[in-house]
Specification:
Layout (H helix, E strand, L loop, with lengths): L3 H12 L5 E6 L11 E2 L8 E9 L5 H14 L4 E5 L15 E8 L11 E5 L6 E5 L2 E5 L3 E6 L6 E4 L7 E4 L8 E5 L21 E3 L2 H10 L1 E2 L5
Parallel strand pairs: 2-4, 6-12, 9-14
Antiparallel strand pairs: 1-3, 3-5, 4-5, 6-9, 7-8, 7-10, 10-11, 12-13
Length: 228
């Protein structure tokens, strides 16, 4: 743990280093070189609380917002996060507002993370409905929403954007294989070469997402009905 003076300095630097992403609380810091930044749920009880970051103002550029959050989290050694809902007067959680939200930041040893398997996540873009076909069954995903496919190990899944010259991918997940994440986009997204989370793994209109960025999107996007 750094001394109090360094913690205070980090806090003030972060408060003034970005337009809409602020480090609002630093409880302590942790020295680690973990590159991942995963969402946790029940694991939070075993995690070390480090601080809090707040996003103010809406942006359609979710990758840029995530990059800012990621950098701030890494400066205090965080590798995991949870959404911290704002509360109503009666103590009940407020409805999520993508223009203003807080994330609690933690450090958790990687071996304590729960395995997440058996699903494929499909995210729409931030501003357009996305039509998609999954094994010849049609879906339309609303902007800033995502669909979860429950997969059967060994089965081949064909996912298509249903557009002329659009993308088609085929997946054959194995038993115990980690969740996979894709974003459906009409715009070709340039790969991020900065070395932080959110790397695009595939060009075109079906884009493979790095897990850290995908789990951030699953926090700020709406979950649509589940597909089997």
């Amino acid at each position: 743990m750094k001394n109090l003076g360094i913690v205070i300095l980090v806090l003030f630097v972060q408060l003034f280093s970005a337009q809409n992403v602020y480090m609002t609380k630093v409880e302590k810091t942790n020295d680690n070189t973990d590159k991942f930044f995963y969402k946790i749920n029940e694991e939070a009880k075993d995690a070390q609380y480090l601080g809090e970051v707040e996003v103010q103002g809406f942006s359609k550029d979710d990758a840029a917002v995530f990059s800012l959050i990621y950098k701030k989290a890494k400066e205090i050694g965080a590798n995991t996060f949870t959404l911290k809902p704002f509360e109503n007067i009666d103590g009940s959680p407020q409805i999520f507002n993508p223009a203003n939200y807080k994330l609690s930041l933690y450090y958790l040893p990687k071996e304590k993370l729960l395995n997440q398997t058996g699903h494929v996540y499909l995210f729409a873009s931030s501003d357009k409905n996305q039509k998609i076909s999954i094994d010849r069954k049609d879906y339309e995903i609303s902007p800033r929403s995502y669909l979860i496919i429950n997969i059967t190990p060994g089965k081949i899944y064909t996912i298509s954007t249903k557009k002329l010259l659009g993308s088609t991918i085929r997946l054959q997940p194995k038993a115990g294989e980690e969740n996979q994440y894709f974003q459906i986009s009409a715009t070709k997204i340039k790969s991020d070469e900065s070395g932080v989370g959110g790397l695009n793994l595939k060009s075109g209109d079906i884009i493979g997402l790095e897990k850290s960025y995908a789990e951030f999107l699953s926090t700020i996007y709406n979950k649509e009905k589940q597909s089997n």
